[in-house]
Amino acid sequence: MKPLFAKGPSLGVRFLVLAVLSVALMVVDARFDVLKPARSQMSLVLMDAYWVTDLPERLWQGVSSQFGSRTELVAENEKLKTENLLLQGRMQKLAALTEQNVRLRELLNSSALVNEKVEVAELIGVDPNPFTHRIIINKGERDGVVLGQPVLDARGLMGQVVELMPYTSRVLLLTDTTHSIPVQVNRNGLRAIASGTGNPERLELRHVADTADIKEGDLLVSSGLGQRFPAGYPVATVKEVIHDSGQPFAIVRAVPTAALNRSRYMLLVFSDSRTPEERANEAAQAQDVQDQHVGNAVVVPAPAPGAAPSAAAPAAPVAAPATAPKPVTPAKPATPPAQAAPVKPSATTPAATTRGRE
């Protein structure tokens, strides 16, 4: 007679099987790319989970903003008006500098972009692993995001996109131990490499000579080397420089300018994807077209009133033709040169040989 309830494997056996299966999946995910499509599809399902987990915070922010006191709102409004006025004044100066930069680049036959295209993204998740500094944003492959795309906030560079999903992306921050960025000192142009330390408030400059001209308070900006980050964006501020006479390199520590652990909204930078050769060729073609337009518009000065045109002079064209003009043969004089009667120089006029009348 069979028992009413069949006895299955014990709890320990089940736990062991699940543990082995979990370890196998982690090894496969770390060493192979087989599970990337599955992870990309699972992100579509997890978007609802992100939205649900973020709902309490958004509700709390909405309720707190509704019950804010009128005095605080009026004071904040006045402060924002003052800041807006100051920013408008700065933007007027920036607009003039931008126009001047454009004119100088045109003189240099350079077609490089002055301003990059940007798109606003929002933080929706943080990697719980304390040994990696990664965040998740709400822009993905469907929004035009690409691998290696720079990400910055209102204060400076934050990192770059390292993993793409249809509607979300993972961003590796500057302070991660596996991340490095080429920088230069804004004061004197000294180049260096800023590497992450695992501390969200610290970067280190590797292999800086002990005699290098760098000091506390120097601003570090992206140098643009490597064609990954655009040049000129703030990266960090030098906080400490330690010189050791027994070591060939100085210890340089810097603080990131971006609020890596506080920023909620950030910008995705879309740089110019053309190669330098393509930009140079396009600039040369544009210059050739401009030269052709200038060459086709030839203005001929009108003759003075009452002056008769010379017979030996070629006929002046009214406008230059589009094609290369043919040489004009000078008109022959009415009388041969041999029949011209020479005039003897007088004492009151300088000695000179004049041509005979035609």
Automatic annotation (TrEMBL):
A GO biological-process term: regulation of cell shape
- Stretches with biased composition (Pro residues): 327-336
- Which Gene Ontology cellular-component terms appear in the entry? plasma membrane
Q: Where is this region: Disordered?
A: 305-358
Where does the Rod shape-determining protein MreC beta-barrel core domain start and stop, copy by copy?
Answer: 124-269
Recorded hits in Pfam families, A to Z, give: MreC
Q: Where is the composition biased (Low complexity)?
A: 305-326
Q: Which domain of life is it from?
A: Bacteria
Name the keywords, alphabetized: Cell shape
- Which InterPro entries has this protein been placed in? Cell/Rod_1 (IPR042177), Cell/Rod_MreC_2 (IPR042175), MreC (IPR007221), MreC_beta-barrel_core (IPR055342)
Where do the coiled-coil regions begin and end? none
Keyword Cytoplasm assigned: no
The record's comment on protein family reads:
Belongs to the MreC family.
User: Which NCBIfam families does the entry link to?
Assistant: mreC
- What is the official name of this protein in its record? Cell shape-determining protein MreC
Q: Source species, please?
A: Pseudomonas kielensis
